[in-house]
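Quick one - first record:
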Amino acid sequence: MTSMKPRTHQVGLFGALALAAVGLAGCETYSAGSPRQYAVLEAADTTGATNTNINSLSEVISRNPNDAGAYVTRGAAYARSGQYGDAIGDFSKAIQIDPNSSSAYNNRGLAYRQTGRNDAALQDFSKAIANDPNFAAAYIGRANLERAQGDLGGALNDLNVAIRLAPESAEAYHARGLVRQKQGHDADAIGDFAAAIDRNPFVAAPYAARGQSLIATNQYDKAIEDYNAALNVNSKDANSWAYRGVAYEKTNRKKEARESYTQASSLDPNNSVAKQGMSRMSGGIF
């Protein structure tokens, strides 16, 4: 498995003024002959500390009402607390003050995605890139949207640019791995997920995503290792428990498979991978 030692010069996805990083993970429906389905998993920070920070930032804005950066910073705090409407308002105000702010456009694009306004998000990511063609985060944001919309070629092109601009970005490699995985290029996807893990070994999603590609290439023991690593970071991820069950099932370790499926079902009773796995095991089909 890839070393757990983090790199010292890691490039942040969105920079100091950016929206909270979006967690991405592949989500595959497991059944023979069925198409793969992938979803974007995005979570907000709803801690009281964020709300306290918003109050402090509001005081800064009251003293500096024409500071575009202050609105971007407070908008990011709103987004982290799940207040996307307020976040969009702050990013829009920042753009009004500074129409050349790539950070404001990029962050508003991310907030638009959270509220399902994908066309507006795509326009904002493209505007951020037009303002600053070297802004890697905007390429990543646009690529994630393109992948979700099925434009895998466009997503791959954007992520190749992002990796050239920010070669230490774990998020860029992870996102490109998801595109390659969806294209069915699992060997290439495994390489990208490994690069993401090498750059940031303390996030669960790349381990879980690589585990799916390892299952797809019949590397079940390695997949189990990756799901163990993912669960060590986030033990509440039902999908990781479920896919670990698949890997155990494929190696005929019935007891471990059943335990993993059971844990997945306890976390998410509607988890289709766990339900299908338990059904197969109950019917004696392996």
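second record:
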Amino acid sequence: MDYADDMEVLFIDGLILKNDTDALKVFDSSESESEQLQFVIVFNFDQFITRGRQTLLYTLLNASRSGSVFVLCVSSRQDCTELLEKRVRSRLSNAFISFALSSVSFDDFTKAFAIFLHTNLKKYEQNNGLIQAFIADECVEHKLREIYDETRSYCILKQITATFLCFMDAEHIKSLSSPHASRIFVEAKNAVIANEDTMKSIILSLTLRQLCLLLCCVRLVRYQRRQDFTFREIILDYRKLVNKYLPTLNVKDDLILLKELDTLCSLTVLEEREQCGQLLFRRTSVQVDIDLVLSCVKEFTPLPTALIHWIDNLEK
């Protein structure tokens, strides 16, 4: 490469290096001469944000301002910069390169399921040649379509796949060609995602505040075409709703609303993701059909008249 003699490239990965000390050793052990440009690429840099005092990021970004160091921070999290300490954020450039994810198609979803089922374990390697036939099974394809329509989430699909393989192992069934495999897949799906009757019971058991928070999520999905959103965005939408229609449900403390959202996640109405950084910026998504939510709301008692008007506007 033409630039090999003029530049040193360093790679630091937050998923591999578990603490700032080890990561700094990579940077400090550099053999770069003082006049040679250093290009430091920090993969999964959000991992370093939640550890300690963000020493690594501060050191690298500070060096990029005063020396011949260029730092590229890479992350799949959209909210990672919001979690930076003030001293670190002040040294971060305003230059961003963003790659928007295209919407997930059912074909993409099916291919991902095939990848999740693939294994390198010799004990189960014979199943790799049976994956496509298993996915083509009418019952499996129907359930896979249900999962896609309800969630469009690779995270949920991976949970269902792991549950399915555990159930297969528990029943001592080693082959995907077994007539019991499709039944076990259905059971795995129901274990991770509640069926419609169960979900309806859950929705009807919510408190009025929890129901309003869920309706705000529905509004974000329906009108803003959002697949996921942060707790903060839900709370802001909730405040707009209650200020206009139900002032008695307004609360000053965000912590109360955060606890309610956490409860909705534990009830599987919203997706529960691993917490990283501030709770306000945790991302989630609706894990229940929004039409089911709206139909359940009409059965909710007692339902304030003001909220009925808001729901009518939502359905138009």
